[in-house]
TrEMBL record:
Keywords: DNA-binding. Residues 37-178 form the Ferritin/DPS domain. GO terms for molecular function: DNA binding; ferric iron binding; oxidoreductase activity, acting on metal ions. InterPro entries: DPS_DNA-bd (IPR002177), DPS_DNA-bd_CS (IPR023188), Ferritin-like (IPR012347), Ferritin-like_SF (IPR009078), Ferritin_DPS_dom (IPR008331). CDD domains: DPS. This is Starvation-inducible DNA-binding protein. PROSITE patterns: DPS_1, DPS_2. Belongs to the Dps family.
Length: 178
């Protein structure tokens, strides 16, 4: 019983635990682990940015209300759908996908801002979303290089699509501040 408890605890703090150790899809085990770990960081960044974009959809105000309310909705909807593809790629690589706020806080490069309880002005929201989209790009680009070296084409394809989207969103948001 003591061992079972210890195993349970290890599983909670190690979201990257290999769920299928005997998997052989032609990617070296070590590469598969590194890519799955990297994708967990991409998922955490993407989820954090998704939530922030939805938060700002709810709380934006001022003369830009209508256009930003709609723009944020378009972006968070696309991001929400992509979360599933990232998580399921981690599963296909034989690992568990993180799915708790606790894990996302640990894994994300986008840090929680406790002051966000009070909504910032619209231009601060836009600037924060530029930063967030750029952060996802940096993480995705790092993992894409790993996947490319390992011959993991589905992950390369997925991350290429995510980079196209997040670089485009960063540009569209940046343009509002010029
Ligand atoms: Fe809405």
């Amino acid at each position: 019983m003591g061992k079972h408890k210890a195993d349970k605890k290890a599983a909670t703090i190690a979201p990257h635990a290999d769920a299928s150790p005997r998997i052989d899809i032609g990617i070296a085990a070590d590469d598969r682990r590194k890519i799955a770990e990297g994708l967990s960081h991409v998922l955490a960044d993407a989820f954090t940015l998704y939530l922030k974009t939805h938060n700002f959809h709810w709380n934006v105000s001022g003369p830009m209300f209508n256009s930003l309310h709609l723009m944020f909705e378009t972006q968070y909807t696309e991001q929400w759908n992509a979360l599933d593809d990232i998580a399921e790629r981690i599963r296909a690589l034989g690992y568990h996908a993180p799915g708790t706020y606790h894990a996302f806080l640990q894994l994300s490069s986008i840090k929680e801002d406790p002051d966000l309880i009070a909504p910032p002005a619209w231009h601060d929201m836009v600037a924060q979303l530029v930063d967030g989209n750029e952060a996802v790009c940096r993480t995705a680009r790092r993992v894409l290089k790993l996947a490319d070296k390992a011959g993991d084409d589905p992950t390369v394809d997925l991350l290429t699509q995510r980079l196209q989207t997040h670089e485009k969103y960063a540009w569209m948001l940046r343009a509002l501040l010029e």
